[in-house]
Protein 1
Amino acid sequence: MGFEGYSILELQQVKGFARELFGFLILSLKIAIAEQYGYPSKMKTLLEFFKDSSSLNGNNATFVENLYEQFLEDPESVEPGWRQRFGEIHNGVAYEIPHGPIVERFGQLAQKPQTRIAQLQGFTEESVKKQSAVARLINHYRVRGHQIASNNPLGGDIPALTDMDPAYYGLSELDMDTLFDTGALYGADKLPLREIIKRLKEIYCGSIGSEYMYIVDTHIRRWLITRIESYTANLKFESEKKIWLLKLLTAAEGIEQYLQNKFVGQKRFSLEGAESLIPVLDELIQLSGAKGVKEVVIGMAHRGRLNVLINVLGKSPSSLFSEFSGASTSHPPGMNSGDVKYHMGFSSNVETPGGPVHLTMAFNPSHLEIINPVVEGSVKARQDRAGDNGKNAVIPVLIHGDAAFSGQGIVMETLNMSQTRAFNTGGTVHIVINNQIGFTTSNPLDARSTLYCTDVAGMVQAPVFHVNGDDPEAVIFVTKLALDFRMTFNKDVVIDIICYRRLGHNEADEPSTTQPLMYKKIRSLKTSRRVYAEKLIQENVISREETTAMELSYQQQLEAGVIVSRPVLDSNIYSYSAQWNQFLNQNWDSPCRTAVSLDHIRYCNDRMLRLPAGFELHPRVAKVMENRRKMAAGGMPLDWGFAENMAYATLLIEKFHVRLTGQDVGRGTFVHRHAVLHNQIDNETYTPLKHLDKDQGRVQIYDSLLSEAGVLGFEYGYSTTMPNTLVIWEAQFGDFANGAQVVIDQFISSGETKWGRLCGLVMLLPHGFEGQGPEHSSARLERYLQLCAEHNIQVCCPTTPAQIFHLLRRQLIREFRKPLIVMSPKSLLRHKLAISTLEELTDGEFMPVIGEHDNIDPKKISRLIFCAGKVYYDLLEARQLDGLKNVAIARLEQLYPFPAELFKAEIAKYPNLKEFVWCQEEPQNQGAWYQSKHHFSDNLKSNIIVSYVGREASASPAVGHFHVHIEQQKAVVQSALYGSPSGK
């Protein structure tokens, strides 16, 4: 019997049957011993000997199986006699399960008298082949049954899979009533083949199509097999449960009908056709509470959002109706512009069997799946707050559209983050509202290149359950299974609700113009509620009159404007919302002291220099640490790395938390930070910031995966949840943030004014023209300045170590939470002039404007150069070299909010000023010029000439040739100092 045509996976699935074959192996070995040395005296018959030896009656099978697996891993580890026997049977094949070789071995034994023992038990070569065929058939249902499942409410052609036909395995009608080993299918060890096939079709080809056999972890796969194959046994609902399901479907359908009739033509992105989402969420929340979950955070786009808010989270219908009518005026502080109703978030508390559960619906713009990492980040923050069992106290639930799940790259990024140290939230329950159409005019054939919209989930080996949305009981079974999986293994799981969209992309859209056949079918379908109601009527669970009364009662509740979901508990149960109150309505310019004592600095530095015994630093890192010792002692000027680390350390001592992620952040892209140290002996890591004090704040420093949108979205979500954590995302180069522009535009810059969501996220964006070409020069400063309005964000260009020290500390110490965009330096990290003193840390503060430092007579100044960033040092060195006395240089360290009063105070120092020059490295159409020049004009006297100096407008941020860069940079500096690129 050969193995051509069998996959490794198929061979692995006959492992249970192989246990029986191992029993034969024992038998053959013992018979061989008996032939050579004589049968044991106690043996009366060969049959008794077989019974004593059989794997069916003893523990020998497990022993031999384990011994054989040990042989496969290391033949030399097995005793020589066994090694020889296994070698003969295994015969050098590459697969793990010794199926064919064992069968062949017993085929050879057929010529010997003892083979009659096997025949007495029904074991012949033919029966072994038949059992093998059945095992392979069972396996194929597990692997491919989902492809022929009847789980599409729209129907459609089911493919004919030849390898699902019993005849493909040599099984015929004559075998249908033969008993075969089932591998404990449905809890039965043996069943007739006819019953085996019937049960397999019911489990794998009915309302649920299960994909999980690609999971490589055998334990997880076996757990799923056990749970999935108990489908019928666990699909027994009491009448009360069935009536509750009907009530939920009635609510899901009822709110849509009410809105359609009362607010004709208004967009609401109806859930009609996918009403089973409401039972899924209700079941998920109740079961979560029973398992000890305290918070559920939900992220979803707009389809079905209003339905979920009303029927699951308990939003007041009257409040929603006010939003529809335009009469609603209530909004959180800071929410000036607002947003459409189907983007708004909500939170509430509901009772469950395990106590109150806090529900949060995240605010979400129209960028669909971009909410995914934001929710994950918020969940991570909540889990950190919850403590050691946080991953099982707070769970994320993400609701996707089918086309978006397969089409949006952020889905892949978020999945890829799910099991990493920095971003693991203990598994997400993904729910796909599979309308089978992306948007009204799309052809499903153009929506993706994969069989299912959920195939991307296979990258993290998440099981996927494709369930018929018109079968609410199957939906509930899958929900229970998915939640149990998540809570057991802390991994992602996907519920794919196969349904349809009864209306178009929105309520004003006419879908049949581009999808005539699909919508002809849809309009002929009964609603999910009606299908289930008729089923319960036939089962005598409920009468037709009662179903009608149920509908009427729901509509009456809506008319009354009362809450129609499960009862909502007092909001005081969840106390964390109040943590943001102190940051509301604060004055931007409220004073705060960021300086620290010298003793404080030296204590922190001393702690950071203490390493575990035997920890060997790289020589270059050891030099950095030694220099930091000297800096704290006052023997060296402070560099950037020292000041930045001191900012983190002092905040941690003050019991604030620090979270820093991004590519290379542990050591820093430009090797300046060294916050995470690596032992050169064993590559173990040590983070000194974690070992400052026993009662310090929490530290999380992670080198992130190669993602911008996913990671930045995650950190935004984290920062909106934890106001007392310094949350920082650092780009490897500033322009890498381009890949996360949607997060910046839709959340960071506008989240407060749209939704009232405060955020203190810090973005460190390396910026500066160093001759490294277009992609590694500019952090696109102009883009952030273009987003500035209403004091929404801070944009700063610190140029000294003391400035970054105070800037980072200010972010947490003042009672104000605004995103901070830092154009952080590259060459300045080690520039000989970019230094600070200990006194600037102990007595100073962040300065939005830094005026002239050199000893220059203000009366002689006729030309004042203002700049931001690295170019200051180029200008300073050139002026000192030329000995100019009539030119002053000042730095604008905070570009937004523009420090008008400090700017005017600097201008006032120079009574004879004639020319104001804005100098920048960036091309004229980039950088700060176009977004800031009105600030200059508004705060200067009319007789002062305002001029721009910098590179000419360019489509590209920078040139690619280093020598051209040098020429351009020199021309910029000379033009700023002298008014001409030629200089003097």
Note: The chain has five domains: 8-123, 130-234, 239-328+335-571, 598-842, 851-978.
Protein 2
Amino acid sequence: MTALPTFTLAIVGAGPRGVGVLERLSANADGLLGDRRVEVHLVDPFPPGPGRVWRYEQSPLLRMNSMPEDVTVFTDDTVRIDGPVRPGPSLIEWVRKVRAGTLEYPVPDDVRAEFETLASTDFPTRRLQSRYLEWFYRKVVAELPHGITVVEHLATAESIDDDETVRLSDGTTVSADAVVLTVGHLDAVPDSRERELEAFAEQHELSYYPAGYTADVDYSAVPAGEPVLVRGFGLAFVDLMLLLTEGRGGRFEELPCGGLRYRPSGAEPVLHVGSRRGVPYHAKTGYPLRGKPLQLPRFFDQRAIDRLTGPLDFRADVWPLIAKELAWAYYTELFTGHPDRVRMDFAVFADKFADLPWGTSEMDALITAAVPALEDRLDLERLDRPFAGRRYDSGEEFGKAVRKYIESDLARRADAHHSADLGAFMALLSVIGQLPTLLATGRLTAASQVSDMDGWFHGFFSYYASGPPPRRLEELLALEDAGVVSFLGADISIAADETAGTFVASSASHPDTVAARTLIEARLPEASVPRVSDPLLRSLRDAGALAEETVPDVDGATLPSGRIATTLSDFRLLTVDGSPHPRRFAVGPHTSVRSAGAFTRPRTNAISFRQNDALAREILRLANP
């Protein structure tokens, strides 16, 4: 029998997601590839494994916001996939094996000290994570079955011809039979409002930095000693804060009584930061659960989703189920981990809780009767908008309130007395895993899906569950105490003052304003196919070979989401006429098949692993029909 020609697959994007797909191709090959050979071309200007975001060549000041015990790139027996599970070490397990000499890895000198001292509850540098991802990639390649080979291209993919020829920035081409785009976050050109601010800055010789990935932006021109307006108080701000302070020669000192003092170098600007909430993301918790194991999902599971009848409004119809799920996990931990702080047997509370809808007076009465201390009750509205409706006489008074808020958050996240917060965190992770099931029903209204689920809810998730290490908020307080950072307020507004020729910031929290000649958008760009800046995605879009997702509404209308349009079942790219491309695929957080990060907490049945496995199996079936 004549041997089939080699099947050539181009994976554009060789970070954790691209390598995760490669690992699943390897794992599934025995059952699906047969005698067909596959040559995988990994295309990325950054090193395979870490890719762009986790590349080794970035500031050593930048850290992960996850503990090494909560990071893995390996499937385990909780992951519900059709392919074989191939377990492996989490980040901390890998470090321990390297330390013990049971796993050979050449540790670079500039992370050796971190390797030697890293504990399971530390927050590693991104450089250390980069080494873990590099090792994972090398392990995957070393263990590829006989029928799969890999070719690396340290270049940018710029276009794909109709015959699947991928043209690269170094002048070479890859003649592919299929292409997978593992695109990650979508870089974007400025939107209309940002262009207005850019034009104003150019007219008045100001500095404006539109939304972008902080580690990729050159902030060297930000002037020392001058006020700088910063819009955004999430992880992008935390990175910016470090780069413009400690990264410019300042240093943090431990105080004998606890806390930090910042010693300025004199090269720092003065950062005035504000956002919609006016506060930073919550710090990560520093303790384990103390009560009985959580049974999740409980109230936001397949059955509950199936019972929902459309059209659905996310806030009115879905959020009460999610809120009840968060509260269930929160109160399970409170009752079973801290029984001295409740007035009711947990079994009795659980039965009554299960029968009551969230947000009703009966549910409120049950919680009030069972949980005497106000601080022990879960208030999701206050969590979401802690300063909503509160106005202070001055920016100074607001700053004092924010400082107290951050100090309280740090104390709460460091004290196992409040481990119920971790229960709610675990429930949020469970909810994220159930959202694809909700989307598959097609019952959400388009506006609610785009604005409420993709917008508000995912923002709330990041704010509550994906915040910085506690040390970063301690550093924020030290910088505020040193006069290097001040807090602008909630619902921040930026105006272009033509008369003064400056940017002016105001907020809903107090009447004071701040003027500055520099404005920084401390956030990632929103997903936007119309504004995408990547040359490959732009060329595919302009050719009609890649489309923006349009979310169908119940009345037949559609609403654009900004995401790359793909099929939900097999990740195929959709063209502008709605047709799935037979040989082009895309996977990642900003496609129709939404997902979280490419690596995840162990033993959580992560969506990304399930997606990688399903995509790999589809490709192998294409290679060996």
Note: The chain has three domains: 7-187+528-623, 192-281+468-521, 302-465.
Protein 3
Amino acid sequence: MNKKKNKFFNRYTALISTMFIIFGVILGKLIYLQVYKYADYKDMSNNRSRRFVAENAPRGIIYDEHGNILATNVQSYTITFTSTDESNASFYDTMNKTFKILKDNGEKIEDDMQLKIDANKSYYFDFNVSDAESIKALNIRFKKDRGLDDKLKKKLFPKKTSDLTSSEQNQLDEAIYKYSPEDTFYYMIESYNMYEMLKPASKDETKKYQAMSGKEILALLLKSYSLEDVRKYMVVKDAIKMQSFKGYKPVTLATIKKQTSFIFYQRLNDLPGIDVSTEPVRSYPYGSVASAILGYIGSIDGGTQARYEEKGYDVSTDKIGKAGIESAFESILKGTKGGTTVKVNSKGRKTEELFKLEPSPGMNVHLTIDKNIQYSAERSLQEELQDLQKQKVINDSTGSVDLTNATRGAVVVQEVKTGRILALASYPNFDPNIFSTPGALTSEISKQYFPRNEQYEAFASDFILRQGLNKTVDDLFPKNKDGIREDRYDLYPKPLYDYATFGLTPPGSTFKPLTSVAALQEGVITPGYTIQTKKYYDLNTDIFGDTKPEDEATPAMTDLKRALAVSSNYYYYNAAIRMYKKYAPSEKDSTIAQKVQGLDMLAKYAWQTGLGSDPNGTQKAGTGIEIPENFGQVYNFQSFKNNTINLINFNLVGYAENGAFPGRQSIVKMDLQLNSDDSDKLADAKKKIKQMVKDELNQVGTKDIRGDFDNFYKALVPAVQEIYDNSPTYQQRVKDANVSAKSAVNSAAREIANYVIYSVSTELMSATQIAYGAIGQGMDTFTPLQLVGYISTVVNGGTRYKAHLVDKITDKDGKVVEEFKPEVLNKIDISPENLAAIKLGMNMANTADAGTASSVMNKFPISSGGKTGTATFRQDQSEYGREAFGVYVTFAPLDDPQIAVCTVLYDGGHGYFGANIAKAVYETYFRDQLKAMNYAPQYDYTLNPPLADVKVSPTTK
């Protein structure tokens, strides 16, 4: 019995029992997975195989006033890559094949990665911006998005576990910014595991590569690949990395031609993860025409990602308006995205369509501009500037004028009775298709639009040689604290800068019609008021003293009409001083309030026409135009005082460092510039003096501060003493000058007090500023858009309209969603008699023998009025290769004005050169009337505009 029992439990039966137990566990697990957890794992499997393929909505169409299409969309074909386990495993093989197909068919990968390599194999960043602040912000954002901040944080603060303080974060940001493009490239080589391109044969080899630095890995890669090829793979890896933040979505590799898409369709089975899709691409049928108005589209910058994410944008793929109407009406134009939820297989290929949401196109924007007038304005502007450059140097009654740098300019055309903008041109311009067409914005083109140090340096070297300047590159394009060069003297032509809405220029004599309005309406002159003009203004010596401003006009008996025709400075100096003296009749007996009122008389009228705005008022500073703009200011006491106080520290530092204030005795050179190595006490002492000066000047206009000299001087002495006590540099200078410390301190305090109390305060209260303002000099600066608006306001009888570019908004079916009517901003009183005199004087400027624009306009059959202006850039402009701005404003017809035109030519030398451009605009605007007159046009493109109408959007690229 025992023997049988023992045989029953032998090793064989034990093995069988164990096997039954194991199979039982497996069977139980299978039942658990396949039955009990079936629904959960089915959902998990479905989620992994599902993809939402977004479909971008077509942007709304932009039309001109006659329904011609200025911006639309065309269907393009794109190659995309979807990350799956299989596609990632064969990533490099797939990319090799994809790159070859693209190359064989003349296609390029979509390269938006801002880390570039130039022809000399040097690394650099290209962020498609020019201003230093944006460059720095985008540089830091790029590196943070790639995780470089974590690496540098561990290096800088190895023991830090809590959040960084504000100071520590600033330190980290500076370290990130200074991390070189080359080191960033090495970091990305390492971060993206690009050693996989070497196809390691074993785990040990993989570990060896993983232990290497990015620089070492690149050295190995360069044995088999070119640097450009390595970067191509990095571009795709980087796009996948950036897209991964938004979930599993396809990455666009290239936008291709239709023929190329067929080749990819045939090869899809050999290309895991690759697919072909269609996408709308922004298209501008007329190329560069109206580019300053339309703007362009581009990728979302790192600095604005959060804002657009909140609005539902996919910041890794979506394009937004970056300037002009495209930007200002982004929310109107963008439309609503659609997409399809699909199932994909292991290769990332669609196997089933589960759900589709149709995209909804954006709404359409109808502009006020006329494409034909726009074309004439742009072409004539370009031709005029090119013609001036060919003339090089001309000699006339004003002397020698160098026109070789007449490379920038603007034109604005406005309806006088509505404020509608019919044309707005800026030169140089750009083709917005370059920004919307994938791959079109090459590195070379980008440098033209977004110049870097190298472009400024090359330009400056050539400019200095060509102009014969005694300057260096650093003089013309100085570097800021981050080493980025800045165009301080506005020399470099900027295609993306809208000179029409952003370019602030002195108006010169085009301001004289405004002075006429003010003087006539104030009753200090009449249309018949006549004065004997001379070469030098010699009246009102109580204001000008021994200074005699020069008038280039021919001396003669001059009334208002002739003063406008020949642009007499003498006449308008006198008109301005008469206006001032109406409110402050005596320099000695008039109150401060009366003097300030007199100084503001021109501004009182200018503000009502849109030339600046009251700094103490509630009026909105702007023309009302829908796109971004600068808004310049006219001379007025408060603004002039504010500008002076803002600059006072700069002047104070310079004079102290030179050891002499204007017209005063020399002092021991004094260091007032704040330096990084200053002690806290020294820095505080320097700041204290500067604040004392500002506080004293802030009282100008409320009292005569000349009575404060003694107290101000006494207060300055201990403040200067503090600088001496804490500045080894100042102490050494005093010692070298062989004077006592007390003498040096007292002398410096006295000269600072003299400068502030007498020189600066006297200048602030001087009526010479209103005299210079009356002829468009001094602090007056305006945009061409402001100038055309002011002329429209004057010649229509005093009604200021809001400038506007948009007539209406329509939906995809053409239904009007919103319409914009002319809007009156304010009105200015101009009597009919005064207005008639001003218009007649401006007509004489265009037609009379001595008229400043008559050489161009005198034979034009439609009556018009005009005013030229020649305004200096700065007193020493020739030292920097600059010439005067050439400004011209005009309107037509004379009796019933319909349109006004303003032209500005940078370094154009004379205003009348702009009359040629205005004439081209008139020929286009009045072409039907002119044809009926059998008029022979000056330009072959004006009476019969060459641009064909485009009223239907193309659909395929």
Note: The longest helix spans residues 11-36.
Protein 4
Amino acid sequence: MLWRLGHSYWRSPTRSPALHLVLDIPFACIKSRTFLLHSQWRSAAALKVATIQSSSTSVEVGLAHTGTRREAPQGVALGALENGNGRGKGESLVLAKPVTPDYTADPPENWLALIDALASPSVTKEEALERLDRFASEEGRCEYMICLSNRWHTARLALRLAESSQAERSVKLLRVCHKLGMRMKFRTYEDIAHRLANREHWSLIPSVAALARLHSGRSSAVLLNWRARAYIEMRHYVLLGDTLEEFRRHDIKPNRRTFHLLITGHIRNRDLGKARYYLQKMEEAGYVVDASTYAAVVSVYRSLGPDPVVCDQALEALQNVSARAATRILNSLMQFAIDAGDVHGVARVMSLFDQESSGVQSIIGDGGDFVPPIGECDPQTVGTSMSPSPDVSTLHRLISFMSKERDLPSVLQIFYRMQDAGIVPDSSIAAALVRAHLRVGNEATAVQIVADMCPPTVPLGLLVRIGFISGAPYPRRTPVIQSPLTVGVLNALLKGIIGPRGLNGLNCILQIMQIVGIKPDENTIKILLHYLDSTELARPRDIIRILRKLTFMTSSPTLKHVHKVLKGILRREKIRARGQDLLRSSVVTGASTPQRGPSQVSQKLTVSGDVADPTAGLAFPRVPNLRSLMRPVIRSLTSHGVRNDAAMYALRIRSDAVKGNTTRADEVLKEMISRGIHPNEYHFSALMTAYVTAGNLPAAHAVMRNAARSGVTPNAVMYTILLSGYARVRNPTMALHTFEEMIQAGITPDAPAIDTLVTAFLAARDFRSAKRLLLHLWSLVMPLPREQWHDSLKSLVKEFRSASLSRQRSWKDLSGQRGKMLRWKMSRVLRRWWHAAA
């Protein structure tokens, strides 16, 4: 302000000499270097904060009587300098400008440890000042001490820490500075919350919002919106419901983004009732439903399944939204098509992107096998006034879709053309490329992609242990991603290598995380639980114990973790209840097949009369103490307000199907639809299983026809369920008719379908037809050696099952040496996990 006044004065033609003399005094003081340094030292001394100068900016002391100069001793506090302590007789201080810290590098560990200690609520201001003086005298020079006396430096360091792996220390630094009496600018809290969101440190954002309110006595719409977004990402929907109350408490008017967050958050929680409630509140606040609202809704509607009405509204909104929002809408519509396996739907969405300016034509191919020629769907047919450009998220979805089809050449073609179009790939593209190579068994290239992203601190021997081949000739154009390594990339690699390399591969990934400074997340836990259940055949109670330990070290348990536990229990119940192993062995030997009805089904996994959240009414068995072990996990989900999702409803229907309770399975499906969740192939397959178990095959056929009318294309699993039903009732004629119907529908039969069809003829004791069918259909899944054509039927069936089907699990509890070895390996994993999470 003073500089502006002086500038206007000197440019004024009518300036007065008196005003000139008045302004000369402050100008001289401001320009004086001595005045600046003196003000800085007095400010620091008032806070009793020690600033230790670096060697290039040391405090020089001149001896007046001898003319000699010496440096002040290291570790002298500012208070001592202010009081004259540490200065000999006749000595004068020649102060130099302090050094600013290097904010591109991490602060020293001893200084970070000091911040951790000072941030404790038990440490008072006086104790904090004493520790600072002690640190200054013991540790020597540390340019980061200036951050405790200058809020500009504090803000820069806090922002740097928020983007690092030590993000929680940015919050501690704010607490320490406030304890020492420093008042930070309010914009600093908003910037830190933004940086934390970019690095997905959602658990720290509510603390930043609370500190801003505590330190400054106020809040802002930006901070409260970040707080609401953090609760959505942490799935804490109970606290999300207090958002509008927080706005009223601080007398802040919620904006359109606030309501969009509330609406989309409850849609992600499958709670359409509350989403409609906040939509009404948004209109009452004066914000009409516009195109941006439709864009926000369609971006999160995947949790409920594709809704044609929502998709049509989103397409109509394309002409009234920004280019960025239009890209988000098309990305969501593409994801709906990918989830349904609709190749032509993906092509239609891609045709809505800009064909020339963004180079879509060169990215997705020129009329190749994957997509029809661009232009099949004219953008004008949906009323778009502009064609948005694809972004990295668009191509990430496209690459993921092609990787599921195991089409690695198309994946690489999309990647290289994306680079040629000027789109810079990020870590999500790297994770998709890793998954694509692992799906086709190219583990070496997948590890090479991750190795190129690792910093030099990762030892080469650690990469070799997970499949890296040093000096091996790789393809001419191995994809190279110039992006920092993230937990998503390591999870993609872990999912592919944990099967062949076991827990040793997991230990290597955790060690890389520890070196790079990446913490395992909920997806890492899910991968480990799936491995323990499917490969190690761990007992459910052991899996639950491991889940509780991992979530304590990493994050809160999620509904996906409960899925893994329930799915393993239900699979065991299904095998015991139906006696599939006994059925297949008896029909091969010609013995009588025992029929088991619903009354013989094991009742270990109980269900309640309703579909209570969050487990859809599924209750864990009391023995062996599964319910008590799982109770804290369920209590955590309930306290967060988590509701049933589509997968949990599918598990509930499967549980009723195992027991043959078709009535209850129908009611669960109807209640799920009433909540706005659209059924998929898993729900219809589970309902068909219920009718097949009850022996009502016409009803199972009707369920598959209803699925086709609902937009769910029948797959090989649904037809295999029907084939198993006809095998149970010994009706090979209808089984063969159903198999022919599957082929006419364009569905390629897999090994389980062929095996179930042959089983139907074996159950009817038509061994000649069974052998002829097996020999005829064998080549559909694998080549048949010519020397085995004349083998017996029994040996052929055993050979086909051992070569094509997964090994049968005995589901016996681990005991003896194998159980001890697994527990020993898991103890090593838990120790490594603790270091990586810390």
Note: Residues 1-31 form one domain.
